[in-house]
Amino acid sequence: MANRDQPINRRGSKLLLIDKRTDTTPGLGNRFCAGLVVKLHLHDFGNLVLRSAVFGKHVTYWESFKFPTDTLLPNQNFTMNTNLVSSKSQTNYSSGYYNFYFDDDNILLLRFQDPEPLVSSVYWPAPWLGPFQTGRFTYNNTKNAVCYLYW
């Protein structure tokens, strides 16, 4: 969910896309581009992709698989800069107390963090177990995981 801690709640809101690196609108720069066609496409496997076709050239500006909020779908990559944050409850979608991420030893962790009083602890795997005891290995430095679905 975009802006999950400060959602937009009024009518007449507009969507504006800005490239953080250049502080411009993707594909437009600071001027209008007559050949720009922007499409939002939901793939069958769940990836929502914003892309354009400028004079036959396809450019992807954003895709949901690269910026997950609180859910992973099958075949979705989970990388070192990705952090899943739970919702507070089933009806309150603001940031919750659980974070899922790669730690500095390349191990996936689920951490509980309660802001008041400040309590933080590793929820999964058990913190007293080493990486090899939990079936995880620190020798893989790619920090890239893929979510698979098993039946």
Explain what you see.
This protein is mainly β and 151 residues long. It contains no helices and nine strands. The model is unreliable at 28-32 (pLDDT under 50). The strands form three sheets. It has a four-stranded antiparallel sheet with strand order 5-6-7-8, with no helix packed on it. A three-stranded antiparallel sheet has the order 1-2-3, with no helix packed on it. It has a two-stranded antiparallel sheet with strand order 4-9. It has one domain. The protein has strands spanning 36-42, 48-54, 57-63, 77-79, 84-87, 95-102, 108-114, 119-124, 144-146. The chain starts with 35 loop residues before the first strand and ends in a 5-residue tail after the last strand.
Order of helices and strands: EEEEEEEEE
Q: Tell me the strand percentage band.
A: 25-35%
How many domains make up the 3D coordinates?
1
Number of helices: 0
The separation of the N and C termini measures 28 Å
Q: Largest sheet, order of strands side by side? A: 5-6-7-8
> How is the biggest beta sheet arranged?
4 strands, antiparallel
Measured as a percent range, the helix fraction is under 10%
How much is the radius of gyration in Å? 19 Å
Shape: globular
**Count of DSSP strands:** 9
**Low-confidence segments, ≥5 residues, pLDDT <50?**
28-32
Mean model confidence by pLDDT? 74
Q: What is the SS-derived class?
A: mainly beta
Subcellular location: Membrane
Protein name: Bulb-type lectin domain-containing protein
InterPro entries: Bulb-type_lectin_dom, Bulb-type_lectin_dom_sf
Pfam family, one: B_lectin
